[in-house]
Specification:
- By secondary structure, this protein is an alpha/beta fold.
- The chain is built from six helices and 13 strands.
- β8 (about 155-160) and β9 (about 165-170) form a beta hairpin.
- The two termini are about 30 Å apart.
- The relative contact order is 0.18.
- The mean pLDDT is about 95.
- Keywords: Isomerase.
């Protein structure tokens, strides 16, 4: 069974008419676009952090608005590499996490969507933490990361971001405490954002062999 598709179609149920929606990137989000196309609602105002999602939406006849024109969303949906029991997530693959975090921060609800393989009790180091860095800070940022986390390994990606910045993959044998990791990376001058989505998501919709689950952040009430 296609559990990402099942989760995506379930996530659509959170969307009501006349709402401002943000969509991220990944397979689950592409299934959400297909579901939106089947049940087309022209009252939605749509934004996306992803060029590929934008193309899917426009090909389906939706209008995609410029992010710079908005300051608040009703809901933002996104996939991830993995998320933990507290809904902290890693989104390391596409390198668009700065824009994804911008939309997630604007949203009244930030909902993760995917299959059950994305869920772990604690984030695992099979994926790097990625930081977006302005070009002039590329050496400085690496030196600062190494000072704080001397046992990590780093690799600068060849690709650039939509803002013409650089990406550094940071690999750990074991993650430090997530609050420490999150604040340490954010406080390095020249670093825009990291791919660690710490304390941001409100819900997760996941599907698997044991059925469909909606996980809510502890203490969150929609």
């Amino acid at each position: 069974m296609n559990f990402k598709k099942i989760a995506a179609e379930a996530a659509i149920r959170f969307i009501e008419g006349n709402t401002i929606i943000g969509l991220g990137d990944g397979a689950a989000i592409s299934y959400m676009v297909k579901a939106l196309t089947v049940n087309k609602n022209n009252s939605l105002t749509l934004f996306t952090s992803s060029f590929s999602t934008k193309k899917l939406l426009e090909d389906a006849g939706f209008t995609v608005n410029e992010i710079s024109a908005v300051s608040a969303l009703d809901i933002y949906f996104d996939g991830c590499d993995q998320f933990d029991k507290n809904l902290n997530a890693l989104k390391s693959g596409s390198g668009i996490h700065t824009t994804e975090k911008l939309l997630a921060s604007m949203a009244g609800q930030f909902i993760l969507v995917g299959d059950e393989s994305k869920y772990v009790d604690a984030l695992q180091t099979k994926y790097p933490v990625v930081i977006e860095v302005i070009p002039d800070a590329i050496q400085f940022a690496q030196e600062q990361v190494h000072k704080i986390f001397p046992f990590c390994k780093m690799q600068v990606r060849e690709s650039k971001t939509r803002y013409s910045n650089l990406l550094i993959d940071i690999w750990f044998d074991e993650f430090p405490g997530l609050p420490i990791l999150n604040s340490a990376l954010k406080n390095i001058t020249g670093v825009l954002e990291s791919s660690l989505f710490y304390n941001m998501a409100h819900k997760a919709v996941i599907a698997g062999e044991n059925g469909l689950r909606v996980i809510e952040k502890q203490g969150y009430s929609s």
